[in-house]
Automatic annotation (TrEMBL):
It comes from Zhihengliuella salsuginis. Residues 52-130 form the Thioesterase domain. InterPro entries: HotDog_dom_sf, PAAI_dom, Thioestr_dom. SUPFAM superfamilies: Thioesterase/thiol ester dehydrase-isomerase. This is Thioesterase. The keyword Hydrolase applies. Keywords: Hydrolase. Belongs to the thioesterase PaaI family. The keyword Hydrolase applies.
């Protein structure tokens, strides 16, 4: 059974990022499964640190984007919004220029007022680059 509110598809999810940070740094949504959402991001001049490898902050931006979109897809958007409350990340190996990194978010807990998501980011070879956990607040919309 799917955790999503409605039946999201990749094209619909991609529209959520139009004109945002995700679009600016090249995040592309690639899959919405029954309990996961996946996106990729280039390791290029927009996402590297001065040493020329993937910036940890870019990894965190990918992780929070995936968790937030995942959270958004689980709630009735007419009644609720989700907001990042806390995020942590362990950077395991560098993302190398010319590659893409691929993140997959899956929920660890889906509560009425908060959600916890785990995001694993791997390189093109499937090796772990970063693992992150993001806590989201679920907030009723005004009105």
């Amino acid at each position: 059974m799917s955790i999503w509110f409605g039946t999201p598809d990749v094209a619909e999810v991609a529209e959520l990022g139009a004109g945002t940070l995700s679009e600016h740094i090249g995040i592309e949504f690639t899959h919405v499964g029954e309990e996961t959402v996946t996106a990729s991001m280039p390791v290029d001049p927009r996402t590297v640190q001065p040493a020329g490898v993937l910036h940890g902050g870019a990894s965190v931006a990918l992780a929070e984007t995936l968790a937030s979109v995942g959270g958004h897809l689980t709630v009735d958007p007419e009644r609720f919004q989700v907001f990042g409350q806390e995020i942590n990340a362990n950077h395991v190996r560098p993302g190398l220029p010319g590659q893409r990194v691929h993140g997959t978010a899956a929920p660890l807990a889906l509560g009425r007022r908060s959600q916890v998501w785990e995001v694993k980011i791997v390189n093109d070879d499937g090796k772990l680059v970063c693992v992150s956990r993001c806590t989201l607040a679920v907030v009723a919309t005004a009105g």
